[in-house]
Amino acid sequence: MSLMTTDTTALESDVRSYSRSWPVVFDRAQGATMYAEDGTAYLDFFAGAGSLNYGHNNPHMKQVLLDYLSSDRVVHSLDMLTTARSEFLQTFSDNILKPRGLDHRVMFPGPGGANAVEAGLKLARKITGREAIVNFTNAFHGMTLGALSVTGNSMKRGGAGIPLVHATPMPYDDYFDDEHDVPDFLYLERLLEDAGSGLNEPAAVIVETLQGEGGINSARVEWLQGLAELCKKQDMLLIVDDIQMGCGRTGPFFSFEEAGIVPDIITLSKSISGYGLPLALTLVRPELDVFEPGEHNGTFRGFAPAFATGAETIRQYWSDDSLHKSTIAKGMVIEGAFNALVAKYPDANLISKGRGLARGLQFGESAKAGEVAKECFTRGLLVETSGPEDEVVKLLPPLTLTDEELNRGLDIIADSVATVLSA
Q: Which of 25, 98, 115, 179 has the fewest beta carbons closer than 10 A?
């Protein structure tokens, strides 16, 4: 294959972002590695923003996809019954839902995470007859108007061009400094119980158990349990957005499992197809499945090749707890490496954050995180930043990366931190 000789960026909208952070033309990818056109290898600790939990071009899933396409199986079918659809639903039920004591029904709302969130918000409002949604500071739920209304980032919200209404932000866990010693949900509970607060009775609360785009902010088990109890007490539905942190990213398949809570509605996307193909699910408790036939739909509500790879991914990686244990173990390696950096550079006010293989290194001087990410890129490692001021170096490597790849990436980060903080 010949190298691209023409710069096509002038043909593309200026809204593009990742190509600015990593200004090379990528050509191939395998596992935890991406290759530029000139053959330069880049270790990928970004993994499609969490869409490639099982690596690029996973060989097993690739063969499933090739076999599916080569045998003229159905590719597009709206929501008609197909073999691939039935196999995915049965596999998901048998291997994911039933072993966890969940009886949620599966809705295919459209191809992306924002579609799953929109369906969940719309359903919650239909069920309760209420308009308001409670969301949390630094949340990210998508770029469509409904999802954007419950997102915290001011830059992204500003792009809407119209008022984003019917959502009320509340403090996420540890939003206040420890010195303030504010009880969990003090503000929210007071507003809900005070007839003079002006807060419209909410239909639902939407939450990420670990905020990715918000800065790798992990909610405590006790906080999540308290939120679930508050929702029941106040007759609000609980929506857990597991689009980035589900599919094993924090260890268990669902990020809320550790807290022992059962959300009313769960949103999944990104790695649910196992191969980076578009697919999204909105899971709803049976008694909440009240949409009329066709009341919510979309042209690509269920991409059949993604059903095939998604079902095989579940069979391959979620028939036992091996991947769960591996993810926890690898996450502890990152935590140890980040804790060592925190201790080594006390004046930099570093903070190690995260769970499983969703990890972050927060910098007291926010610009330093971006500088570290750039240094990593020059050394052959792809990492992004997150947080309201991009103050966190964010790691989302494939769950299937090898120990050697993990340690090599951590060495690159350590060298990059040393270069930036010694400048």
A: 179
Across the range 92-100, mean pLDDT stands at 98
Query: How far apart (Å, rounded) are the C-alpha atoms in residues 95 and 223?
Result: 28
Q: Which of 70, 96, 49, 8 is nearest to 269 (CA)?
A: 49
Tokens linked to 117? 């969130």
Percentage of the chain lying above the pLDDT 90 cut: 93
217 and 233 inside one domain: yes
Residue 124 and residue 135: Cα distance in Å, rounded?
13
- Domain residues for the domain of 286 are 73-317
* CA quadruple 171, 229, 327, 315: dihedral sign: negative
Q: How far apart are CA 56 and CA 166, in angstroms?
A: 39
Phi and psi for 196 in degrees, rounded to 5? -100, 10
Rg (CA), the chain: 22
User: Which CATH number does the domain housing residue 414 bear?
Assistant: 3.90.1150.10
Q: In DSSP terms, which residues pair with 385 in a beta bridge?
A: 393
* Among 122-136, 145-159, 275-289, the least confident range: 145-159
Q: Is the pLDDT of residue 387 over 80?
A: yes
* 40 neighbors 380 (Cβ within 8 angstroms): yes
Q: What is the DSSP string of 316-346?
A: HHSSSSHHHHHHHHHHHHHHHHHHHHHHH-G
One domain for residues 30 and 161: no
Let me know: does 395 contact 58? Beta carbons within 8 Å. no
Angle between helices 403-421 and 367-378 (to 10 degrees): 130
Q: Would the pLDDT of 192 be above 80?
A: yes
CATH number at residue 138: 3.40.640.10
Instruction: Indicate if 159 and 176 belong to the same structural domain.
Output: yes
CA distance 7 to 291: 48
With cut-offs at 50, 70 and 90, classify the pLDDT of residue 183: confident
